[in-house]
Amino acid sequence: MITSEIWMNFFNTEMKKQFKGKNTILRSVTEEDAAAIIEMRNNPSINRFLSSSKPLTIEDQLAWLRKNLEATDQHYFMILNLNEIPVGTISIYNIKNGSGEFGRYVCTQAVQAVESERMILQIAFEEIGLKYLYCRTAESNEAVWRQHLRFGFTDCGNEFDPQTNFDLHVQGITQEAYQGFNYTKIDQLIARFAG
Fold this sequence. Notes:
The longest helix is centred in the middle third of the chain and has 19 residues, at 110-128. This protein has one domain: Gcn5-related N-acetyltransferase (GNAT) (Aminopeptidase, 3-Layer(aba) Sandwich), CATH 3.40.630.30. The chain has helices at 34-41, 44-47, 58-69, 110-128, 142-150, 175-180, 184-192; strands at residues 3-9, 14-20, 24-28, 75-81, 86-96, 99-107, 132-138, 154-161, 166-174. It has a 9-stranded mixed β-sheet, with helices on both faces. Helix 1 (34-41) crosses helix 3. The protein is of the alpha+beta class and 195 residues long.
């Protein structure tokens, strides 16, 4: 189970949230995270699956963050290990009419990759109160869309994104499916790595 706290971002006086799991912290992204984000996103092994494959500059990332941090239809988190070292990003966005999209998911550490997905489901359905969560993953990123299946997502088909030239693997999970899914093995795996 996650614990949460609200904290104040003194740079823009907006309330932010932080969630702590057994091995992982999800903290609302701030502009100060821009350098860590572009370092991950410019990594060729990660970048090949992202919607923008061109190398990002700090100016690009700051401009994008400034625009998106003002949006009220999303929650964008840094994934941190317990030493508060950034290891990824994760988000719920396009929130409307009880549904949201899970994405902007990049993680460089296996333990945090598993736990952050477990945490984002808890945030989506228990904190925000969504009824449906969906994700669109590059078809070639098989490891990630297969991971989503292990968390109770079901396949909803494929779509082509002309902006990225990607075939996307679309998956979704309802609040009812989340509530009825047995996460015991996933929770045991997460607990095994707790330090």
